[in-house]
Specification:
The protein has 207 residues and is an alpha+beta fold. The N and C termini lie far apart (100 Å). The protein has a five-stranded mixed barrel with strand order 1-2-3-5-4. The longest helix has 23 residues. Helix 2 runs antiparallel to helix 3. Among the domains are: 72 residues, Beta Barrel (OB fold (Dihydrolipoamide Acetyltransferase, E2P)), CATH 2.40.50; 72 residues, DNA polymerase, domain 1, CATH 1.10.150.
């Protein structure tokens, strides 16, 4: 009987090795995952630029973990020096102006420290108080100055240069500012829902 030419069983390792068709080689490519947003918080030292129409702002911030003021760019309903800023976003390197924090989300709150309160009052937010009187008021009343203006405004006349007329103007301006800030805070969610961050280029502005 002649030799059978039937193929070996599937389990025949030698036949499999001889007959198998080599599979194409695949290379594994590792795609870098997008960087997660970072958080940043600190005292607003200066408002370099602010567009009142869309809230786009360039801020100088005394941020935690940074020795020098950092540049933060982004949108928010209202902003003043001295306020406390919290932000989420990413660091970007501008060719001309260096490192900047491009914020995807920004929020600011009234200051609570003496340094912040002095900057806030001295920024012109409250009519009748400039940088000189801001320092005098904070030196005299400390962190209670907002409470003094609102509920014990007569005590403002303890400072030289503040009489009844100026005191009333300060109190009225403070009431208007407080009302405005409350409205902005209540509408902040609405602001972000109707004013999403646009894919704008990093803002560059000479100091």
């Amino acid at each position: 009987m002649g030799q059978s030419d039937s193929k070996p069983a599937i389990g025949d390792a030698a036949w499999l090795a001889r007959e198998a068709v080599p599979l194409p080689e695949f290379k594994t490519v590792n795609h870098p995952s997008p960087a997660l947003p970072e958080s940043l918080s600190g005292l607003i030292g200066r408002v370099t630029f602010c567009n009142e129409e869309n809230g786009w702002a360039v801020l100088k911030v005394k941020a935690k973990g940074h020795r020098d003021l950092v540049t933060v760019v982004g949108s928010l309903p209202s902003v003043s020096p001295g306020e406390w800023l919290t932000a989420q976003g990413r660091w970007v390197q501008d060719r001309e102006f260096g490192l900047q924090f491009r914020a995807e989300m920004l929020a600011s709150t009234a200051p609570t420290t003496k340094e912040g309160i002095e900057k806030y009052l001295g920024s012109g937010m409250v009519k009748g108080i400039g940088p000189v009187y801001a320092k005098k008021l904070v030196d005299r009343f400390g962190e209670r100055i907002f409470e003094i203006i609102e509920t014990e405004s007569a005590r403002l006349e303890e400072l030289d240069g503040i009489g009844p007329k100026r005191r009333r103007r300060i109190k009225e301006a403070w009431a208007a500012t407080k009302c405005s800030n409350r409205s902005l805070l209540e509408g902040q969610e609405d602001f972000w829902s109707h004013c999403p961050m646009k894919a704008e280029p990093v803002f560059s502005l000479q100091d």
